[in-house]
Amino acid sequence: MLISGAKLLQKAHNGGYAVGAFNFNNMEIAQAIFEAADKNSSPIIVQCSEGAIKYAGADMLYAIVKTLSDKYPHIPVALNLDHGTSFESCVYAIRHGFTSVMIDASHHSFEENLAITKEVVKVAHAADVGVEAELGRLMGIEDNIVVEGKNASLVDPDEAQKFVKESGVDYLAPAIGTSHGAFKFKGEPKLEFELLKEVKKRAGIPLVLHGASSIPDDVRASFENTGGDLKGSKGVPANFLELAIKGGINKVNTDTDLRIAFMAQVRKVVKEQPSEIDPRNYFKPARAAVVAMLTERMKVLGSAGKI
Ligand code: TD3
Ligand code: ZN
Asked: Which residue, 137, 138, 130, is CA-closest to 205?
Protein backbone atom coordinates (compact mmCIF):
# COMPACT_ATOMS: atom_id res chain seq x y z
CA MET A 1 0.00 0.00 0.00
CA LEU A 2 1.25 3.46 -0.91
CA ILE A 3 1.70 5.33 2.38
CA SER A 4 3.35 8.46 3.72
CA GLY A 5 7.12 8.28 4.03
CA ALA A 6 6.79 9.72 7.54
CA LYS A 7 4.62 6.83 8.72
CA LEU A 8 6.88 4.23 7.12
CA LEU A 9 10.07 5.69 8.57
CA GLN A 10 8.68 6.37 12.03
CA LYS A 11 8.12 2.63 12.29
CA ALA A 12 11.72 1.94 11.24
CA HIS A 13 12.96 4.54 13.76
CA ASN A 14 10.97 2.87 16.55
CA GLY A 15 12.12 -0.60 15.48
CA GLY A 16 15.81 0.27 15.01
CA TYR A 17 16.09 -0.84 11.39
CA ALA A 18 16.44 0.87 8.02
CA VAL A 19 14.36 0.81 4.85
CA GLY A 20 16.07 0.95 1.47
CA ALA A 21 15.18 3.90 -0.73
CA PHE A 22 15.82 2.67 -4.24
CA ASN A 23 15.92 4.90 -7.33
CA PHE A 24 14.16 3.91 -10.52
CA ASN A 25 13.22 5.53 -13.80
CA ASN A 26 11.84 2.59 -15.75
CA MET A 27 9.39 -0.25 -15.39
CA GLU A 28 11.90 -3.08 -15.05
CA ILE A 29 13.83 -1.66 -12.09
CA ALA A 30 10.56 -0.74 -10.33
CA GLN A 31 9.34 -4.31 -10.86
CA ALA A 32 12.61 -5.66 -9.45
CA ILE A 33 12.29 -3.52 -6.30
CA PHE A 34 8.73 -4.71 -5.63
CA GLU A 35 9.62 -8.32 -6.40
CA ALA A 36 12.50 -8.20 -3.91
CA ALA A 37 10.24 -6.57 -1.31
CA ASP A 38 7.66 -9.31 -1.81
CA LYS A 39 10.22 -12.13 -1.58
CA ASN A 40 11.78 -10.69 1.56
CA SER A 41 8.66 -9.32 3.25
CA SER A 42 10.27 -5.90 3.32
CA PRO A 43 8.82 -2.40 3.31
CA ILE A 44 10.38 -0.19 0.59
CA ILE A 45 10.80 3.37 -0.52
CA VAL A 46 11.01 3.93 -4.25
CA GLN A 47 12.35 7.26 -5.36
CA CYS A 48 12.79 9.41 -8.45
CA SER A 49 15.21 12.26 -9.01
CA GLU A 50 14.19 15.34 -10.98
CA GLY A 51 16.25 13.79 -13.79
CA ALA A 52 14.09 10.66 -13.66
CA ILE A 53 10.96 12.82 -13.87
CA LYS A 54 12.42 14.60 -16.88
CA TYR A 55 13.19 11.24 -18.50
CA ALA A 56 9.93 9.38 -17.91
CA GLY A 57 7.38 11.92 -16.63
CA ALA A 58 5.98 12.15 -13.09
CA ASP A 59 2.63 10.75 -14.25
CA MET A 60 4.33 7.68 -15.76
CA LEU A 61 6.52 7.06 -12.72
CA TYR A 62 3.54 7.41 -10.40
CA ALA A 63 1.46 5.06 -12.57
CA ILE A 64 4.19 2.41 -12.44
CA VAL A 65 4.36 2.57 -8.64
CA LYS A 66 0.57 2.71 -8.23
CA THR A 67 0.15 -0.34 -10.48
CA LEU A 68 2.79 -2.29 -8.57
CA SER A 69 1.48 -1.29 -5.15
CA ASP A 70 -1.98 -2.49 -6.23
CA LYS A 71 -0.42 -5.75 -7.36
CA TYR A 72 1.38 -6.17 -4.00
CA PRO A 73 -1.06 -4.54 -1.55
CA HIS A 74 0.69 -6.04 1.50
CA ILE A 75 3.93 -4.11 0.84
CA PRO A 76 4.17 -0.76 2.63
CA VAL A 77 5.72 1.59 0.07
CA ALA A 78 6.44 5.31 -0.10
CA LEU A 79 7.16 7.16 -3.34
CA ASN A 80 9.79 9.84 -2.70
CA LEU A 81 11.08 12.77 -4.74
CA ASP A 82 14.86 12.46 -4.40
CA HIS A 83 16.85 15.72 -4.14
CA GLY A 84 14.05 18.13 -4.94
CA THR A 85 15.76 21.43 -5.67
CA SER A 86 12.89 23.86 -5.10
CA PHE A 87 9.55 24.40 -3.37
CA GLU A 88 7.87 24.20 -6.82
CA SER A 89 9.50 20.87 -7.60
CA CYS A 90 8.18 19.40 -4.32
CA VAL A 91 4.65 20.73 -4.95
CA TYR A 92 4.78 19.24 -8.46
CA ALA A 93 5.65 15.81 -7.04
CA ILE A 94 2.93 16.04 -4.38
CA ARG A 95 0.38 16.92 -7.08
CA HIS A 96 1.46 13.80 -8.96
CA GLY A 97 0.83 11.48 -6.02
CA PHE A 98 4.26 11.25 -4.37
CA THR A 99 3.94 10.41 -0.66
CA SER A 100 7.34 11.78 0.34
CA VAL A 101 9.51 14.67 -0.85
CA MET A 102 13.10 15.61 -0.21
CA ILE A 103 13.78 19.32 -0.29
CA ASP A 104 17.51 19.58 -0.79
CA ALA A 105 18.42 23.17 -0.01
CA SER A 106 21.67 22.12 1.64
CA HIS A 107 23.70 24.26 -0.78
CA HIS A 108 21.95 27.39 0.60
CA SER A 109 22.73 29.00 3.95
CA PHE A 110 21.32 27.38 7.09
CA GLU A 111 18.65 30.09 7.41
CA GLU A 112 17.57 29.77 3.76
CA ASN A 113 17.52 25.97 4.00
CA LEU A 114 15.33 26.27 7.10
CA ALA A 115 12.95 28.80 5.50
CA ILE A 116 12.36 26.78 2.31
CA THR A 117 12.02 23.51 4.25
CA LYS A 118 9.35 25.11 6.46
CA GLU A 119 7.34 26.09 3.38
CA VAL A 120 7.56 22.57 1.95
CA VAL A 121 6.55 21.04 5.31
CA LYS A 122 3.44 23.23 5.37
CA VAL A 123 2.05 22.03 2.02
CA ALA A 124 3.34 18.46 2.35
CA HIS A 125 1.80 17.83 5.74
CA ALA A 126 -1.55 19.18 4.53
CA ALA A 127 -1.44 16.35 1.95
CA ASP A 128 -0.15 13.69 4.40
CA VAL A 129 3.23 13.65 2.62
CA GLY A 130 6.48 13.14 4.52
CA VAL A 131 9.40 15.58 4.16
CA GLU A 132 13.15 14.97 4.10
CA ALA A 133 15.81 17.69 4.27
CA GLU A 134 19.61 17.63 4.15
CA LEU A 135 22.16 19.32 6.40
CA GLY A 136 25.82 19.61 5.50
CA ARG A 137 26.98 18.78 2.01
CA LEU A 138 27.74 15.47 0.39
CA MET A 139 30.88 14.98 -1.63
CA GLY A 140 30.69 13.65 -5.16
CA ILE A 141 28.17 14.10 -7.89
CA GLU A 142 24.61 15.19 -7.20
CA ASP A 143 22.54 14.69 -10.34
CA ASN A 144 25.37 15.87 -12.59
CA ILE A 145 26.26 18.89 -10.44
CA VAL A 146 29.79 18.28 -9.29
CA VAL A 147 30.21 19.07 -5.62
CA GLU A 148 33.94 19.43 -5.10
CA GLY A 149 35.55 17.97 -2.00
CA LYS A 150 36.41 21.45 -0.77
CA ASN A 151 32.74 22.44 -0.68
CA ALA A 152 31.73 19.36 1.23
CA SER A 153 30.97 19.94 4.88
CA LEU A 154 29.78 17.66 7.60
CA VAL A 155 26.57 18.16 9.55
CA ASP A 156 26.69 20.26 12.75
CA PRO A 157 24.69 18.63 15.62
CA ASP A 158 23.64 22.02 17.09
CA GLU A 159 22.27 23.04 13.72
CA ALA A 160 20.53 19.68 13.32
CA GLN A 161 18.72 20.09 16.63
CA LYS A 162 17.59 23.63 15.81
CA PHE A 163 16.66 22.68 12.23
CA VAL A 164 14.46 19.74 13.21
CA LYS A 165 12.71 21.68 15.96
CA GLU A 166 11.96 24.73 13.84
CA SER A 167 11.25 23.16 10.45
CA GLY A 168 8.97 20.29 11.46
CA VAL A 169 10.79 18.05 8.96
CA ASP A 170 10.02 14.31 9.29
CA TYR A 171 13.44 12.84 8.49
CA LEU A 172 16.87 14.33 8.08
CA ALA A 173 19.89 13.48 5.91
CA PRO A 174 23.05 14.49 7.78
CA ALA A 175 26.28 14.61 5.77
CA ILE A 176 28.62 12.16 7.56
CA GLY A 177 31.17 11.47 4.82
CA THR A 178 29.41 9.59 2.03
CA SER A 179 29.09 10.72 -1.57
CA HIS A 180 27.01 9.76 -4.59
CA GLY A 181 28.19 7.48 -7.37
CA ALA A 182 30.71 4.64 -7.65
CA PHE A 183 33.77 6.54 -6.37
CA LYS A 184 33.11 7.33 -2.74
CA PHE A 185 36.47 7.00 -1.05
CA LYS A 186 40.04 7.60 -2.22
CA GLY A 187 41.67 5.45 0.46
CA GLU A 188 39.95 3.39 3.12
CA PRO A 189 36.20 3.98 3.59
CA LYS A 190 35.53 6.37 6.47
CA LEU A 191 32.26 7.59 7.99
CA GLU A 192 31.67 9.84 11.01
CA PHE A 193 29.76 7.43 13.25
CA GLU A 194 30.20 9.44 16.47
CA LEU A 195 28.86 12.53 14.76
CA LEU A 196 25.92 10.49 13.50
CA LYS A 197 25.05 9.29 17.01
CA GLU A 198 25.20 12.85 18.33
CA VAL A 199 22.88 14.06 15.55
CA LYS A 200 20.45 11.22 16.27
CA LYS A 201 20.40 12.10 19.96
CA ARG A 202 19.75 15.78 19.27
CA ALA A 203 17.38 15.40 16.30
CA GLY A 204 15.35 12.47 17.66
CA ILE A 205 13.83 11.65 14.25
CA PRO A 206 14.54 9.11 11.47
CA LEU A 207 17.85 9.79 9.71
CA VAL A 208 18.79 9.20 6.08
CA LEU A 209 22.07 7.97 4.57
CA HIS A 210 22.67 9.24 1.04
CA GLY A 211 25.33 7.74 -1.18
CA ALA A 212 24.93 4.35 0.48
CA SER A 213 25.71 2.01 -2.42
CA SER A 214 28.16 -0.75 -1.48
CA ILE A 215 29.30 -1.99 -4.90
CA PRO A 216 29.34 -5.59 -3.61
CA ASP A 217 32.18 -7.75 -4.98
CA ASP A 218 29.87 -10.06 -6.97
CA VAL A 219 28.07 -7.11 -8.56
CA ARG A 220 31.37 -5.44 -9.45
CA ALA A 221 32.68 -8.73 -10.90
CA SER A 222 29.58 -9.22 -13.03
CA PHE A 223 30.14 -5.78 -14.58
CA GLU A 224 33.89 -6.15 -15.03
CA ASN A 225 33.63 -9.67 -16.45
CA THR A 226 31.99 -8.23 -19.53
CA GLY A 227 34.77 -5.69 -20.04
CA GLY A 228 33.12 -2.98 -17.95
CA ASP A 229 35.44 -0.50 -16.25
CA LEU A 230 34.88 0.41 -12.58
CA LYS A 231 38.56 1.00 -11.79
CA GLY A 232 39.07 2.86 -8.53
CA SER A 233 35.45 2.59 -7.49
CA LYS A 234 34.66 2.08 -3.81
CA GLY A 235 31.33 1.85 -1.99
CA VAL A 236 30.13 1.81 1.61
CA PRO A 237 30.91 -1.68 3.00
CA ALA A 238 27.97 -3.69 4.37
CA ASN A 239 29.36 -3.63 7.93
CA PHE A 240 29.49 0.19 7.73
CA LEU A 241 25.80 0.18 6.82
CA GLU A 242 25.10 -1.96 9.87
CA LEU A 243 27.03 0.48 12.08
CA ALA A 244 25.20 3.43 10.51
CA ILE A 245 21.86 1.79 11.26
CA LYS A 246 22.97 1.20 14.87
CA GLY A 247 23.84 4.91 14.95
CA GLY A 248 20.34 5.93 13.92
CA ILE A 249 20.02 5.66 10.12
CA ASN A 250 16.53 4.53 9.02
CA LYS A 251 16.53 5.31 5.27
CA VAL A 252 19.36 4.04 3.08
CA ASN A 253 19.53 5.60 -0.39
CA THR A 254 20.77 3.28 -3.10
CA ASP A 255 20.96 3.89 -6.83
CA THR A 256 24.44 3.03 -8.11
CA ASP A 257 24.25 -0.64 -6.99
CA LEU A 258 21.01 -1.14 -8.94
CA ARG A 259 22.49 0.48 -12.03
CA ILE A 260 25.61 -1.68 -11.97
CA ALA A 261 23.71 -4.91 -11.27
CA PHE A 262 21.23 -4.16 -14.08
CA MET A 263 23.72 -2.98 -16.69
CA ALA A 264 26.13 -5.87 -16.06
CA GLN A 265 23.49 -8.26 -17.40
CA VAL A 266 22.71 -6.03 -20.38
CA ARG A 267 26.44 -5.96 -21.15
CA LYS A 268 26.58 -9.75 -20.88
CA VAL A 269 23.87 -10.23 -23.51
CA VAL A 270 25.49 -7.64 -25.78
CA LYS A 271 28.76 -9.51 -25.52
CA GLU A 272 27.52 -13.10 -25.71
CA GLN A 273 24.52 -12.85 -28.01
CA PRO A 274 25.41 -10.41 -30.78
CA SER A 275 22.30 -11.28 -32.80
CA GLU A 276 19.84 -10.69 -29.97
CA ILE A 277 17.30 -8.02 -30.96
CA ASP A 278 14.51 -8.54 -28.42
CA PRO A 279 14.80 -5.98 -25.57
CA ARG A 280 13.09 -8.44 -23.24
CA ASN A 281 16.03 -10.81 -23.55
CA TYR A 282 18.33 -8.06 -22.28
CA PHE A 283 16.07 -6.77 -19.52
CA LYS A 284 14.82 -10.05 -18.07
CA PRO A 285 18.21 -11.19 -16.72
CA ALA A 286 18.98 -7.58 -15.74
CA ARG A 287 15.79 -7.39 -13.68
CA ALA A 288 16.57 -10.73 -12.00
CA ALA A 289 20.07 -9.51 -11.08
CA VAL A 290 18.58 -6.44 -9.35
CA VAL A 291 16.22 -8.70 -7.35
CA ALA A 292 19.20 -10.83 -6.21
CA MET A 293 21.26 -7.78 -5.21
CA LEU A 294 18.33 -6.20 -3.33
CA THR A 295 17.67 -9.45 -1.46
CA GLU A 296 21.15 -9.20 0.08
CA ARG A 297 20.68 -5.51 0.76
CA MET A 298 17.35 -5.94 2.59
CA LYS A 299 18.98 -8.44 4.97
CA VAL A 300 21.77 -5.98 5.79
CA LEU A 301 19.28 -3.16 6.42
CA GLY A 302 17.14 -5.29 8.70
CA SER A 303 14.00 -4.46 6.69
CA ALA A 304 13.57 -8.10 5.59
CA GLY A 305 10.76 -9.73 7.52
CA LYS A 306 9.37 -6.42 8.78
CA ILE A 307 5.98 -6.69 6.98
O1 TD3 B 1 20.04 10.16 -3.65
N2 TD3 B 1 20.66 9.05 -4.07
C3 TD3 B 1 20.35 8.49 -5.38
C4 TD3 B 1 20.81 9.38 -6.53
C5 TD3 B 1 22.30 9.56 -6.61
C6 TD3 B 1 22.86 9.46 -8.01
O7 TD3 B 1 23.15 8.11 -8.36
C8 TD3 B 1 21.59 8.47 -3.23
O9 TD3 B 1 21.89 9.03 -2.19
C10 TD3 B 1 22.19 7.11 -3.59
O11 TD3 B 1 23.54 7.23 -3.93
P12 TD3 B 1 24.46 6.03 -4.52
O13 TD3 B 1 25.18 6.64 -5.69
O14 TD3 B 1 25.41 5.61 -3.44
O15 TD3 B 1 23.58 4.90 -4.93
ZN1 ZN C 1 21.26 11.32 -2.52
From this structure: 130
Give Cβ neighbours of residue 282 (< 8 Å, ≥ 6 apart). Answer: 265, 266, 269, 270, 276
The CA-based diameter of the chain, rounded to the nearest angstrom, is: 60
Closest ligand 1 atom to the C-alpha of 181?
A: 13
Tell me the average pLDDT of the chain: 95
Provide CB contacts within 8 A for 37, sequence distance 6+: 43, 44, 72, 75, 77, 294, 298
Report pLDDT for 152. Answer: 60
- pLDDT in the model for residue 120: 98
Cβ contact 260:223 at 8 Å: yes
Closest by Cα among 19, 49, 41 to 251: 19
Active site annotation includes 278? no
Burial class (CB in 10 A: 0-12, 13-18, 19+), 167: buried
Instruction: Give the CATH fold of the 5-301 domain.
Output: TIM Barrel (3.20.20)
Beta strands in the chain, from DSSP E residues, in sequence order: 19-23, 44-49, 77-84, 100-103, 130-135, 139-142, 145-147, 171-174, 179-180, 207-209, 249-254
Please name the residue whose Cα sits nearest to atom 12 of ligand 1. 211
Q: Other CB atoms closer than 10 Å to residue 256's CB: what's the count?
A: 23
Q: Residue 144: pLDDT band by 50, 70, 90 thresholds?
A: very low
Q: Which residues surround ligand 2, an ion (CB under 5 A)?
A: 210, 253
- Please give the model's pTM, rounded to 2 decimal places: 0.96
Nearest atom within ligand 1 for CA of residue 258: 15
Say which of 38, 59, 82, 143 is annotated catalytic: 82
Torsional sign, CA 217, 219, 223, 225: positive
Whole-number Å distance, alpha carbon 210 to ligand 2 midpoint, is 4
Name residues contacting ligand 1 (CB within 6 A).
23, 49, 82-83, 180-181, 210-213, 253-256
